[in-house]
Amino acid sequence: MVYISSTHYEDAYRRILDGATHTTGTSVLIFASIDVDGICALRLLTTLLKRDSVGHKIIPVNNYADITLMNTTLIESNLQIRSLVFLNCGAQVDIQDLVSLRDGLNVLIVDSHRPFNLYNVYWNEQVQCLDDGDVENNMGELRQAFEDIEFGNNASDDDDDSDSDDEDTGRKRNSDDDVTSKKKRKTGMDPEEFIKVQEQRAKKRELRQYHQTLVQA
């Protein structure tokens, strides 16, 4: 879990600086919603980045299609990009549906909209969600609910899950001993088998998105 409370904002910014040390060009892409909160947050962040001489590029966001387009044109093809920052957007969707989380890519979500998409909060350590503390008190309950839904509580859930692959999506998950043990206990799968299933679901998701693109065209 990478949920960042207000007392640890500095740690999140330090990850941006650490990523910038690995490149001499633009290392940060900022996706900023074109509303008051997004523009004010953009001014604050760019002031810090300029002070620390961190190369960055600003992408105005009208809708999530703008983010998907930039994933194809700027993120997947540019290994110099080490950090993605979403300002007043991105919290309510699974960010992995919009961008490719390759190794070495850090994602920071600063969004006033609620609720958080729990995949952003619990699924991958590359994704960080900054919060001012309004959801911190019930994080334990949220995590339990998320894991019950995602992994199931008994063997019957596994059968239901295997029959609904077309409705599920595969997502990249960082290794964690505690989470791995829960996967094996709740799904009945070895970690390697679990990963294979998730990869298959990811391929199915990509195929569905491709077909949807053809239909919309």
Helix and strand string, N-terminal first? EHEHEHEEHEHHHH
* Portion of residues within helices: 40-55%
Oligomer: single chain
Q: Which structural class do you get from the secondary structure elements?
A: alpha/beta
- What would you report as the Rg, rounded to the nearest angstrom? 18 Å
What does this protein structure show overall?
There is one protein chain. Helix 2 links the parallel strand 2 and strand 3. The longest helix has 26 residues. About 10% of the residues have low confidence. This protein is of the alpha/beta class. It has a six-stranded parallel sheet with strand order 1-6-5-4-2-3, sandwiched between helices. It contains eight helices and six strands, in the order βαβαβαββαβαααα.
Q: What brief labels describe this structure?
A:
single chain, 217 residues, alpha/beta, six-stranded parallel sheet, 48% helix
SSE map:
Elements: E1 3-4, H1 9-20, E2 28-33, H2 36-51, E3 56-61, H3 64-75, E4 83-87, E5 106-110, H4 118-122, E6 127-130, H5 139-151, H6 155-163, H7 177-187, H8 191-216
Parallel strand pairs: 1-6, 2-3, 2-4, 4-5, 5-6
Summarize the structure.
The chain is of the alpha/beta class.
